């Protein structure tokens, strides 16, 4: 008797789901009766390209992870623009906003995250947006218009709240489109979670050279409305300064989207609790990406999520073949990664790897550091050691050697070269 294929339902259709489908097609082609449901009207696309798209340096046609014909060739049932609003884990049924019901044998939650918003007076005014989805990016592009558009119809001034990676990418994109842009940040320098203070100074100077005003240690007080009370006209800071603007982009972090999981009996902390094989607290239910956490670790970068997709594809295959209690002893689990940060802005080269504390300094008194700088060229790098091992590296300007540092930090191997030689292979004298 022919055994029916197990029904695999993936809820959420972002980069995590797109990568998982690709891994399944490689590891277990034809094994599942697969359906994927997305809230957005588009199938999975590359969110990393949203800032270049906003800057006019990329094209929307480059965003999709797979073509419609690819999904058809893999017999994947795609449902977009119809979000799941309820899960019944006892009956194993997902209900969508349109009233459709989808049954599953195995469920993967890949619901991602939502952009965080500061709870300030006026935050719901028109013109205050996030840059999280393609719809967000297209809405911003519609507001800023084109350089040939009449000034009265274009956003001329914008404020970006948040001086992390996404905020700076958005600010540079807006400035590139001819919008006068100010960045307000609640720390002493941009990218303070990834850079030490000196690298932050170099980055702030680069922003200023691009006519982007950067306000450090800023406290946002309230958003000011236009005369009709409908749209944003400015942001008032805690010191009383009013930043006039017609557009505000919030870039203050993300929050895992776990509202569906909280409706069920799944274990949820800030995100969905899963083990290193992406299994939730209930048989047959899995989660990956920004909506999950493993031993308290949460995820916002592509590399660990793609590793999770590879692990989960193998786990799903094993469970389909041997049942939900299948042994996974020979399946490599997800392992924590030390990931570098790079700023994706044309002409600005920033690299950071390893761990610095929240003040941008070494995390242990036993660490030592060495720096090299060329202020005229706008180049800087600093390395941190503990014993013979490289712990962290920050680079600004010339980042060609970043792969060396990344490998040494990740492998935690003793460094054979002298600190001076490793710091500056060109032989320049560190200062």
From TrEMBL:
InterPro entries: FAD-bd_OxRdtase (IPR050260), FAD/NAD-bd_sf (IPR036188), FAD/NAD-binding_dom (IPR023753), FAD/NAD-linked_Rdtase_dimer_sf (IPR016156), Rubredoxin_C (IPR041575). Its cofactor is FAD. Keywords: FAD, Flavoprotein. GO terms for molecular function: oxidoreductase activity. Residues 341-412 form the NADH-rubredoxin oxidoreductase C-terminal domain. Gene3D superfamilies: 3.30.390.30, FAD/NAD(P)-binding domain. It holds the Pfam family Rubredoxin_C. Residues 7-303 form the FAD/NAD(P)-binding domain. SUPFAM superfamilies: FAD/NAD(P)-binding domain. PANTHER family: NITRITE REDUCTASE [NAD(P)H], PYRIDINE NUCLEOTIDE-DISULFIDE OXIDOREDUCTASE DOMAIN-CONTAINING. This is FAD/NAD(P)-binding domain-containing protein.
